[in-house]
Amino acid sequence: MGATAASRTGKAQEIPVVDERTVLLVVDVQNDFCPGGALAVARGDEVVPVINGFAKRFANVVMTQDWHPPGHASFASSHVGRKPFDVVEMSYGQQVLWPDHCVQGTKGAEFHAGLALPHVQTIIRKGHRRDVDSYSGFIEADRRTPTGLTGYLRERGMLRVVIAGLATDFCVSWTAQDAARAGFETYVVDDACRAIDLDGSLARAWAEMDELGVVRIRAGDLPG
Ligand code: VGL
Ligand code: ZN
User: Fold this and answer.
1) Which listed residue, of 26, 56, 173, 182, carries a Cα 20 to 30 Å from 138's Cα?
2) According to DSSP H, which parts of 33-191 are helical?
3) Is the pLDDT at 57 greater than 80, yes or no?
């Protein structure tokens, strides 16, 4: 079966074709981003049944996992006199400081127990270098260091990436923007994501995604 002109150029259509060259990318559905977690996203756990509902339709599923060492540079606790949600200047630009979260090997870093995705093929861990954050599943915050996900998806012949998870305005948005820049047709399933929304970050995220041709869909738009 031939790729359509649109998919060869990475230009997304209104709704994705879900075939063997389409991957569902589930971003950071981890305990610390759910109610009760260290960096809880309001109603973050509500994405779980929504994602479970459509994930079975995808032959290819990949997850990202925020995976920080203790003392990570994105933690406010690593900066004297700083508190969570302050913004500081790092060598690679501005960085929001967060409560300690998704520390390697902790319960908070584990995936939400309700995710029912036995067919996940690969888990990409990110943010594991102490001095560099990584919202994106593709390229770290220095905007230079690849996680390997682009190569993995390209080598497997993927054309389309459908993204869901947490948080819409940080890891989902950065991941979606990098997917689009890498030339994948990129879709974000709005009702399978929840946002942090810091100082207008959600509206900004959608504007930036839109600018790059990322298509915003709803779970109900996915072909049955
Ligand atoms: C995230 C803030 C810090 C996310 C990860 O998954 O959106 N946000 N680390
Ligand atoms: Zn993080």
Assistant:
1) 56
2) 47-55, 149-155, 173-181
3) yes
